[in-house]
Design brief:
The protein is an alpha/beta fold. The protein is built from ten helices and eight strands. Belongs to the CpsD/CapB family.
Amino acid sequence: MAKKNKNITPLYTYDQPKSTISEKFRGIRSNIMFSNANAEITDIIVASEKTAAGKSTIAANIAITYAQAGYKTLLIDGDMRKPTQHYVFDVTNNNGLSNYMLGRAMYQDAVKETFVANLFVLTSGPIPPNPSELIGSEKFKTVYQQLKQEFDFIVIDTPPVTSVTDAQLYAINVANCILVIDSEKNDKNEVKKAKELIEISGAKVIGVVLNKMPKDKSSNYYYYGDDSND
């Protein structure tokens, strides 16, 4: 089983489970669970409108809260351009999503157990020359449907929405999105554009995490439910 890398992304929900920040993440989990009255939400993409908003930290901590609640959870590093989750969970990235899709890696090699009970990670795998083509292929749809049969909940960490089309392509297969926004460095028009691009792809932005709040606030993370009037 992998060990936590203490020098990478802060995993508050694992290291400080009784902290205020961890409670905020559990609140995010609860909001996701109750955001759809018609059917249980079993997968989400975590996206941002730009780089450095902290989406990978948010994705990892949300995944941990689901695992802590007893859900067999899979965190997919869907960023095959600048992957980070293999560093966060201190696992190898020789085998992962890219070569698993192409049939060049076995399931047991690509999907890795983590130091968190019930949490598994599917790293990006070797960086391919054509990430968008792979994500938009029938092979991804087939692999993803197989993974949905294996896990109770799936979180996909995607590249920034307005930079490349990858997040939109994931959104075709995943109905729900959490959008992460840097509270101090954001462009309202770019945020609106990111939301529109996700929705055009067929997914719904069910909530927003306002990240990197000033230190004088009670917590670094706030959650807002979907508002169709925004």
